[in-house]
Every structure is written in structure tokens, then in C-alpha cells.
Amino acid sequence: MVPLKICAVVIVAVAMDMALAHALELPGKLRLSKEQYLAVQAIYYPGFTFAGVSEPLSVILTALLAFLMPAASLSFWLTLGACVALVLMHAIYWVLIQPVNSFWLKDIGVRTVSLADTVGTAPAPYVGALYHAVKNCVAGIDLGVHLHSRPEDGAAKILAAYDAGCRRFDGALTGLGGCPFAGDDLVGNIATETIISALTSKGVETGLRADALEQAIAMTHEIRTSYGHEVHTQ
Question: For 156-181, how does the pLDDT look when each residue is reduced to its tens digit (9 = 90+)?
């Protein structure tokens, strides 16, 4: 019970931090010009996006704690009250604050957006949960994913995104390329051939054949040999 309580406190603290930040930024958003608003988004929204995973987790964990507390005890009612407050907090955000985020974005002509994890730290369940949470936030957007991963985890992340509704996936032959901040030489772009294999295993018709890419894959391995290092795809 103690580890669960500690975990819940940390996750709820992160969720509350995001809620406070959103509340404090709202008056400023309403005063920004279109150009200023678009410039600000690129600075802080990646952090909001990843930390946003804590929001549904905070509700789940507090609900679980309430379930485990002795019925009708003070601890039970306090925990249940916290859970209800978290639900109301998220409801206020999505009903009152989130529409402001779309105010300037709706008319600038952006039609394609990729949710990105360029350091490869998001596990497959987080990928699916995040995509599901934001896929309907702005109408008319082709929302895809740009994921980096260790080779053994790539297929699971692609399938998690697919199951959440994603139908566009960025990839690179043999997983070429990556992020210098990942801190792991095996973390790179998810290989195109891994994406094809994962989706084919679900019965998805991608319009691509792995054997048709053999020559291009061989050339990519030559590039790795000359300028990088080999990473075996799954």
C-alpha cells in the first residue's frame, strides 16, 4: 500500500502542476497576438504533452487507493474526494481551457501533425494512451506518430498507436537516424520494415512490400557501415 501511495502522490503532483500551469497561462493566451501565440507553443507544449499522461493516471491511482481503503473510513472519504476533484479539474480543462488552444491553430492551414518521442522513453501503453487522449482535439488534422525506440520495443509501440486509432507512422529504413540526447546508441527511428511487419501481423494492408525495399535497405546498411553503426531491426 505504501509504494502505491507514494506513486499516487507523485503522479497527482505532476498532474496538478500541469493544471496550475494551464490556469496561469490562460489569461496571457487571450491577450497574445496570433504570431506570438504560435511562437510560444513550440517552447512549452512538448512538456505539457508528455506530462499530460499523468492526468488519467492520477484519477486511476486515486480511485484504486479509495477502493483499497477501509469502507466509510476518513481515509476512504478523503481519497474519494481527491479522485472526484481530479475528475472535475480535468473536466474544467477540456471544457473551458482546451478550446483556447485551438483558437489560433484552426486557421493557419496545419493539416498534418505527428506526436513525437525522439528519445524513445515512452513505453507502448503511454504511446497508445496519449494518442487516444488527443486524437480528437482538433478537427481536420491528420494525426500520426514519430517514434524512436530500441529495436526490440518498436513493434509494440507501433501496434499501441494503431490500436488507439493512428493510421500514419513515420519510419526510416533500418531505423537509420536518432537523437543525440537519447543516451542509448540502440535508440533510433523505428525501422520502416518493422512498421510494415507489425502492421501486417494485424492484417493491415500497407501497400508496401518488404521484399520491394531490399535494394534500398542494402544501400542503407552501406551508409551505416560507412558513417554509423549497425542496429539489428526486429
Answer: 999 999 999 999 999 999 988 877 66
Superfamily of 110-234 according to CATH: Aldolase class I (3.20.20.70)
Cβ atoms < 10 Å from Cβ of 139: 7
209-220 residue pLDDT tens: 878 888 999 998
Q: What are the domain boundaries of the chain?
A: 1-107, 110-234
Angstrom CA distances, 28 to 1, 20, 21, 95, 101, stand at 41, 14, 11, 18, 12
Least confident of 22-31, 188-197, 202-211: 22-31
Predicted TM-score (pTM) of the model is 0.55
